[in-house]
Specification:
Shape: globular
Number of strands: 4
Order of helices and strands: HHHHHHHHEEHHEHHEH
Largest sheet: 2 strands, antiparallel
Strand content: under 5%
Strand order of the largest sheet: 1-2
């Protein structure tokens, strides 16, 4: 639930900041559902002291939590279907306008179509995680020592806590050092995913054709995250400080990976990994982590585009801004011609200056590269999906069309059936 909450908050911030589609009317049915859930939250909080009442058995509470998760899943799925239909309609309008030779000003823009496809990918990740959480039951947590005792549970818990903390840090006022830490840890998680998935394939838990498709995609994603870390590292200064909470979450991820997936010589062998970990389940968890990392990349992109407090040393600003401006000029943009990004005084003292648009553009392009490579890895590893319906990230694809919410209901395995009335 905390992972979904972090993703939902990130999407909300993106829309509030003015990204597509911006503010607009809300759906009455979903608004009513949200109001009902808010009232339920207040009632639960008011009666928390009486939570040990015999009227609410553990089975009842688990069932209620499952119903809430199912509501989130259906709402996200309906949104993905609507966005997919809208993006397809825009693409159809473009094709029709080309055939009829309508003026370019009267056609939908490619930017609007790509923005809709980006939002599809974000809601698709939310839907994916909600479905997996509903089917998997109660997730492990650091407050449950029984579940967190095994190496598999420790790694799962560390990854989930990292995702939540990364969202929280990026939602505040992140320093470039925070972005460096996020990118480096994501690169490490991607490497771990590759190693553990290959070990699962050697132990016949994963089909060979899946690993052949997935490994190059993971390598490309890892490379993209490392490039992003290097670029953000250039923007750090002696005054840069990493969020202590982010450092703690990153340290736990590194410690969990070191304890479960390495030995003194480096990465553990497939036999060692099989003896320590529940490889089939941890591979599914890591696949969900790839889905979540797409959303983290989008949040990094929004940070690069919108965060007003980003600064960097003047020497780096001058070099990077001019380089990105020259690329833009070669592509036909003229607004950067003759622009001076720093003054001589700023260069002489290497003063911290606000990040100009051209420098932000380079960071956005790097984030887009991370999104593209990670989405490709998610698609390549679609057969690792723990939900009943195997599917990949479908941004902008026509696979959404013709699907209804009713036809895509999910059922918890071994459902004990309807409950009797409460006493």
């Amino acid at each position: 639930m905390e992972r979904l909450r972090a993703i939902g908050a990130a999407i909300s911030r993106s829309v509030t900041a003015g990204h597509w589609p911006g503010q607009g009317p809300t759906d009455e049915h979903l608004t009513q559902i949200a109001d009902n859930l808010s009232r339920a939250q207040h009632l639960v909080e008011r009666s928390r002291g009486a939570s040990q009442s015999t009227t609410d058995s553990p089975a009842d509470l688990q069932h209620d939590a499952g119903q809430v998760m199912h509501t989130l899943y259906v709402a996200a799925h309906g949104t993905v279907v609507a966005l997919g239909a809208y993006a397809a309609d825009l693409q159809g309008q473009v094709e029709t306008a080309k055939r009829r030779r309508q003026p370019i000003a009267e056609r939908p823009t490619a930017l609007e179509i790509s923005a809709a496809q980006r939002m599809i990918a974000r809601f698709d990740g939310f839907e994916h995680l909600a479905a997996a959480a509903y089917l998997a039951g109660e997730p492990p947590s650091s407050t449950n020592p029984v579940q967190s005792a095994t190496p598999t549970k420790r790694l799962e818990t560390a990854l989930a806590a990292w995702e939540v903390q990364a969202h929280r840090t990026l939602a505040a006022s992140p320093d470039p050092a925070d972005l460096v830490r996020v990118a480096r840890v994501q690169a490490l998680i991607t490497s771990t995913t590759s190693i553990l998935t290959e070990a699962a394939a050697r132990k016949d838990h994963v089909d060979v054709d899946v690993i052949q498709r997935l490994t190059p995609s993971l390598e490309a994603s890892q490379t993209a995250w490392n490039r992003m870390a290097k670029r953000w590292g250039e923007l750090t200064s002696p005054a840069s400080r990493t969020d202590p909470a982010l450092v703690g979450a990153a340290s736990e991820v590194r410690a969990a990976i070191a304890a479960t997936a390495t030995n003194r010589a480096g990465w553990a062998t497939p036999d060692q990994l099989a003896s320590r970990l529940d490889l089939p389940n941890i591979v599914k968890t890591l696949h969900l982590g790839m889905v979540a990392s797409v959303e983290i990349a989008y949040v990094v992109r929004d940070t690069a585009a919108d965060h007003p407090g980003l600064t960097a040393p003047a020497c780096i600003i001058g070099m990077r801004s001019q380089g990105e401006a020259e690329i833009a000029i070669e592509q036909g943009e003229t607004r950067y011609e003759g622009v001076t990004w720093t003054t001589r005084c700023q260069l002489a003292s290497n003063q911290l200056v606000p990040l100009p648009e051209s420098a932000r553009r380079g960071l956005i392009n790097l984030a887009d590269d991370v999104v593209a490579t990670t989405k490709h890895a998610v698609a390549a590893g679609a057969q690792l999906d723990p939900s009943d319906v195997t599917r990949s990230t479908r941004s902008g694809q026509r696979a959404h069309l013709g699907r209804s919410v009713e036809s895509h209901q999910i059922t918890r395995p071994h459902d004990p059936g309807p409950r009797g009335p409460r006493r």
